[in-house]
Every structure is written in C-alpha cells, then in structure tokens.
C-alpha cells in the first residue's frame, strides 16, 4: 500500500515530519506488510528529476496524506500535489482517500472560499493534531494516535480506488492464490489475436504479423518477487540465491527477483508445479485486447501510466503493483524487468504455428519480453522481442509464472 505524504518543507518542521513518516510507516507495515509512506527527501536520490518523480509517486498512491499548516495552505506546490491526486480518480466518492492532518494551528481551515484549497480540505474528514506535543514520538499518547491513523489509512487503502482508466475496456478479473508460493494468478480468457508487428511498424524480428489462437490460461499478476523466491530458497537449501540477491538496489521483498537465469526460473516453476508463459501468451496478456504499442495506447505519454522505463522510473527498479493493471488485471508487463518466456528464440515467426504456439523445437537463446526500468520506451512495446542464452545472469531480468492446459516446454 502506497501513501503520498504532502507537506511544506519548513526548517522547524522537517525533522518532525521525517520522524512522523518513519513511525507511521512502521505502524502501517504491522497491519499491511510492504506498505510505504513516500516522502520526497526520503525516497528521491541525488540527480533525480523531482517534479516528474513526484507525479509518478502521486499517481501510484492509494492514499494522499496532507500535513496541513498555514504555510501548507499558501503553498502553490502543495496545491499542485493535491489537485494532481484528485485528478487521478474518476469518482468523487473516492475523495475519502485524502487524509488531512491538522498539523499546527490553522484558522484558515474555516475559509469559505471555494477557490481556496483549505475550503476543499475542510469538507473532508480530518484528524486534528494541533494540541499534540511532538517532543517525543515515544509518548504513549502519540503512539496511540499514530497507530489509529495507520489503521484508518490501511482500511482506506483496501477499498476500491477508481484510478483514471488508461487501458482498453476491462474484462472481469478472476484471480486465485497459489498456495505454495503465495502468487496471485489471473485467469486469461482464450481468444484469437494479432501477434507481432507489420513491416515498418517495429523491429524485423517482430515479423510477420500473424493471427494466433490461444486457449485460456492463468498468468501471475506480477513478476515473481524476491519474497516469493525466498520461499523457494528456504525449501531448497542447496540452491544458491541469484547474483544481486543482497544488492540494496534490488533487495526489497516486493521487488521483482532479478539475476535469475532461464534455467533457475525453470527450477522455480518446476518446484511450484507451474511453468513459464509461452511468448505468444506473454504478448497476448500484455496487449489485453489492444493493438497499440502499449496496452494503454501508442505514445510514451500513455506508457507512463502502466509501465516503468527510463522516462519515469528515476533510474531504479520499482516494487511490483505500484502502477494500475491492464484490462486483464495484470501489472508490470511493460518495463521494470525483462521476463523469461519458455520459447527458444528464432529471428522470424512461423505463421503456420497459429494455435497455442510453443516456438521452435530447439535453439541457442531463450526469449525475453517487457523492457526494463532503464530502457527507452520503444523496448517496452508489447511486440518487442529480446533474447539471451539461458544461462545468462543479468540484473534486469526476472520472470513471471503461468499455469494452464496444454503441454509446455
């Protein structure tokens, strides 16, 4: 669960805000593991483009937490943050996802001017903390207040959101949880689709564009995370963790596991009683009935809402599920990490292999799909193909699991 912390960066308030953020995040994680409270100075590194990164964080937020003070109400920057969040929901009833906390004395909250942000905030249920003492967050009273706030925010975050849709018309999402791994599997309906790209519309290895018919199957809602891979390592003590396992850039539980070879991914899915998706299944699931470059449209601007790439990732791997799903209910297919497919790679498709295709019988390399957090937008296209030797170890490569009818390699 993601919370965006909106506040004014006054010198006499900064230390207090940072301590508050840390305590709140700890309390939330006790109730909802993996929860994060985004604070610009805590989550953004040197050299990152603040306005763009803040926009990404706000769009990914489940709850907008505003620390209201007189300075906050006069801040044009805070006003922009507030309106960006409200523009990202489609139903006014979801304004309950905005949680104002009256941080210091704020008579401006009584303003009746509809042009004043204070007027908007005053119509929303809020917490009044103006009389709290902040000298020590360890005071029992403060601990109780933060605990209650964390509980309320977690409950808000669990209710339906209503993000602005940026995908094609959605189907009814049917999910199940895989007991051994904890992976969420989404049922993907069988159908016919156009795979690849027409001449001049993509790379040569995306040709020929051809019709493919697939049976229904299930696909992981997210790439396999480090937390889910940890279960595999725990039960298979002889298996070594993949390279980069302890690299602080990639070691959060909800990060996709990276540095996994195709062979290691195969070992994981065999242990779990699952499989890797075929290349055709991967592209079909990524497109989610769209024939555009991305499930959300043809432009880079539309990619920003559904995938992490060089233009919005801040140059770092992102945790799964921070951006809205596609029309099939799947997240993170565009960008973040390359994902192994089961197929051997061949430079041209065989259009005769049109029903539940398995790919070539043999080869030297295996197929990768999706793009990464540091790649340019075109590499995140639904049709884009990459390939590597199955023993390759790459810090931007992960995988996603599948399950379904038919024999798979």
Supply the number of helical segments.
11
H/E series, N to C?
Answer: EHEHHEHHEHEHEEEEEHHHHEEEEE
Class per helix and strand makeup: alpha/beta
The CATH topology of the largest domain is: paralog of FGE (formylglycine-generating enzyme)
Strand order of the largest sheet: 2-1-3-4-5
Euclidean distance between termini CA atoms: 36 Å
Main sheet summary: 5 strands, parallel
Tell me the domain tally: 2
CATH superfamily of the largest domain: paralog of FGE (formylglycine-generating enzyme)
Brief sketch in words of this structure:
The chain is an alpha/beta fold. Helices cover 27% and strands 15% of the residues.
Give a structural overview.
- The protein is an alpha/beta fold and 409 residues long.
- It has 2 domains: 156 residues, Rossmann fold (3-Layer(aba) Sandwich), CATH 3.40.50; 230 residues, paralog of FGE (formylglycine-generating enzyme), CATH 3.90.1580.
- The protein is built from 11 helices and 15 strands.
- Helix 1 crosses helix 7.
- The protein starts with a strand and ends in a 5-residue tail after the last strand.
Attribute tags:
single chain; 409 residues; alpha/beta; Rossmann fold; paralog of FGE (formylglycine-generating enzyme); five-stranded parallel sheet; four-stranded antiparallel sheet; 11 helices
Give me the secondary-structure topology.
Blueprint: E1 2-6, H1 11-31, E2 36-38, H2 40-43, H3 50-60, E3 63-68, H4 70-74, H5 76-86, E4 98-102, H6 117-122, E5 127-128, H7 140-157, E6 175-177, E7 184-188, E8 191-195, E9 210-214, E10 217-220, H8 226-235, H9 262-272, H10 279-287, H11 300-303, E11 338-344, E12 366-369, E13 386-388, E14 397-399, E15 402-404
Parallel strand pairs: 1-2, 1-3, 3-4, 4-5, 11-14
Antiparallel strand pairs: 6-7, 7-10, 8-9, 10-15, 11-12, 12-13
Helix pairs in contact: 1-7
């Amino acid at each position: 669960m993601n919370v965006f912390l909106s506040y004014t960066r006054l010198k006499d308030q900064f230390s207090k805000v940072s301590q508050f953020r840390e305590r709140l995040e700890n309390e939330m994680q006790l109730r909802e593991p993996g929860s994060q409270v985004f604070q610009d100075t805590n989550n953004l590194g040197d050299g990152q483009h603040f306005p763009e990164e803040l926009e990404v964080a706000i769009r990914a937020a489940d709850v907008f937490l505003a620390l209201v003070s007189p300075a906050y109400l006069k801040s044009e920057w805070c006003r922009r943050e507030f309106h960006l969040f409200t523009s990202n929901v489609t139903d006014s009833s979801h304004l309950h996802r905005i949680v104002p906390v009256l941080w210091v004395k704020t008579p401006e909250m009584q303003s009746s001017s509809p042009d004043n942000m204070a007027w908007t905030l005053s119509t929303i249920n809020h917490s009044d903390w103006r009389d709290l003492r902040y000298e020590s967050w360890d005071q029992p009273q403060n601990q109780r207040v933060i605990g209650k706030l964390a509980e309320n925010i977690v409950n808000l975050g669990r209710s339906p959101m209503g993000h602005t849709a940026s995908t094609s018309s959605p189907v009814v999402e049917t999910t199940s949880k895989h007991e051994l791994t904890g992976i969420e599997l989404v049922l993907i309906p069988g159908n016919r689709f156009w795979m690849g790209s027409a001449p001049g519309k993509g790379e040569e290895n995306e040709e020929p564009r051809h019709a493919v018919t697939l049976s229904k199957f299930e696909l992981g809602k997210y790439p396999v995370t480090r937390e889910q891979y940890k279960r595999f390592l725990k039960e298979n003590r002889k298996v070594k963790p993949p390279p980069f396992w302890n690299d602080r850039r990639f070691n959060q539980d909800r990060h996709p596991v990276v540095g996994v070879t195709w062979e290691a991914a195969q070992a994981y899915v065999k242990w779990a009683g699952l499989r890797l998706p075929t290349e055709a299944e991967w592209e079909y699931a990524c497109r989610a009935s769209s024939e555009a470059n991305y499930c959300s449209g043809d432009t880079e601007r539309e990619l920003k809402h559904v995938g992490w790439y060089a233009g919005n990732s801040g140059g770092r791997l992102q945790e799964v599920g921070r951006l809205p799903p596609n029309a099939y209910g799947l997240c993170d297919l565009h960008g973040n990490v390359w994902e192994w497919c089961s197929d051997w790679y061949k430079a041209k498709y065989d259009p005769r292999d049109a029903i539940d295709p398995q790919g070539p019988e043999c080869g030297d390399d295996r197929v990768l799909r999706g793009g990464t957090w540091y790649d340019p937008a075109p590499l995140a296209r639904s049709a884009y193909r990459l390939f590597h030797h199955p023993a390759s170890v790459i810090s931007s490569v992960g995988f996603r699991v599948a399950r379904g009818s038919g024999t798979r390699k």
